């Protein structure tokens, strides 16, 4: 009878790191939203919609929206690198600590260092997250410009347009939470895979998260499926790794080589 392989418990992303990342993004988004609402109220006092055609032509109104957006795009750009680096550093450290403890419980004593492979993972994470952070005000103000222009052209009151802006704030707020959770899961999985390669672990078992309102059926079916780490797990006709797909919260359990 074949001996059951010895495994190491699955390493999940650190919720504290995720919460700090999310909080940093949400703070900036709240300031941006408040600024947009304050600015819009000032424009209404200066030129209400019923006289906007004479006092504030549509082209000028659009130009003013873009002036505000440029300031916030610059603000997010200035903050993006620092936020992304702090997130990446904290996430890698948390994953390393968790994996070291899990290996220790399984009888392996390791001490992870910042190797060249991990430096590559860290650099890639920073680049990806900087791009995501910069995209937040760009997407937000694209929507804001449409809201403001439609409001002026149809003569909507300030309360109606403010309500639309607050809805857009909610969408952006939820996107920040998704970015924090998704990037935390991805970096956790990448870190674990690099560390496995460094210590000679070549196989793992897919572990479904059992989370999310609408889990992917194929990921549920793959639970406990054994796969080669370098290749990935065959799911839906392609080889993928836990956390690779957008919104995936799955993890994996390391199989010790002996």
Structural class: alpha+beta
Count helical runs: 6
Overall radius of gyration:
24 Å
Low-confidence runs (pLDDT<50, min 5 residues)? none
Question: Which oligomerization state do the chains in this entry correspond to?
Answer: single chain
User: Which range best describes the helical content: under 10%, 10-25%, 25-40%, 40-55%, 55-70% or over 70%?
Assistant: 55-70%
What fraction of residues sit in β-strands? 5-15%
How many strand units?
A: 6
Q: What is the string of helix and strand elements?
A: EHHHHHEHEEEE
What is the overall silhouette? elongated
The profile of the biggest β sheet is: 4 strands, antiparallel
Through-space gap between termini: 16 Å
The main sheet orders its strands as 1-6-2-3
Question: Residue-averaged pLDDT, rounded?
Answer: 89
